[in-house]
Amino acid sequence: MTIVRCVPLIAASLLVLAGNADARPRSVQPPVSAPIPPVRPDVPDVRLAPIVPDEKPVFESDEIPVPESRPEPEQKQPAPETTTQETPSQKPAIRESVGRHNAPAYETAEDPQQRAADNACQQELRSIGVIFEAQTPISEAAGCKIAAPLSVSALGSGISLQPAGVMNCALADTTAKFARSVISPLAKSIYGSELATMANASTYVCRPRNGTSKLSEHAFGNALDIARFTLVDGRAIDVAATEDEKDRKFLDGIRKAACGPFKTVLGPGSDADHATHFHLDLAPRHNGGTFCQ
Q: In the structure, what pLDDT confidence band is assigned to residue 212 with cuts at 50, 70 and 90?
């Protein structure tokens, strides 16, 4: 009796479980192709049309607009220059031994390094007692020139140069030191009197070498011609061939000692042009050599 009653209960339980299994969520697969909605004839087909401008933009063209040109301002004509014709009396005379320029140096200096070197050289001249006046730069059409010319009137230690000579600073420095350290002591040893004056026959002059078209070292203030030496006691020794033993010893001693400090040394016996003076210059030569006759 008990077994018969249990059968209906088991069957009912199985039905409940089967119903729960059907109630579980199932995955939904989308259709292969979605249906296209039907066209409704009562709704008009409205599509966006491209916007076309009525007119071209202002700058849409092949050519870039050019602004209108402004009229050029009226230029005033310069006033006519007045020129004064230079009379012969106004032209400076070219002199070999007297400066033609009298103003501070370097008004038109071109090379700062050369300017600094010349300024240092001038300071050296002052320290050893050389008396000079700085001149304006010299530049001649023929090519003669001195960047910083000096008019030298005294070489220090009481030695004067007469008349004053225009030269570059290097020549002034070499001449002053040579006169003080060589010529004056040599005069003292031979004559018992020191050097007082050197006669300047030529310093700056714009000319070529004798018989040539090449400019002389005088054209650059780089040469000095000496015609006479005067001692403190008044004795004068001319630069010339001489039979006087003391004069010959004195002149020969100067000539030999000058070859080295000066790069060119010429004098009596070299040629006819130098029979009455010593020519001393600082012309640069190959390998620092000298030319002495």
A: confident
- The model's pTM: 0.63
Helices assigned H by DSSP within 42-183: 112-127, 169-178
**Which residue, among 225, 193, 194, has the nearest Cα to 210 in the 3D structure?**
225
Residue 88 lies in a domain: no
| Structural domain boundaries enclosing 108 | 94-292
The domain that holds 148 is classified in CATH as 3.30.1380
74: in domain: no
Q: Are the C-beta atoms of residues 202 and 167 closer than 8 Å to each other?
A: no
Domain count, the chain: 1
- How many whole angstroms separate alpha carbon 169 and alpha carbon 123? 10
**Could you give the residue ranges of the DSSP H alpha helices within the chain?**
2-22, 112-127, 169-178, 184-191, 245-258
Q: Burial level of 13, CB count in 10 A (0-12/13-18/19+)? A: exposed
Q: Comparing C-alpha atoms, which of 274, 158, 286 is closest to residue 216?
A: 274
What is the pLDDT at residue 101?
34
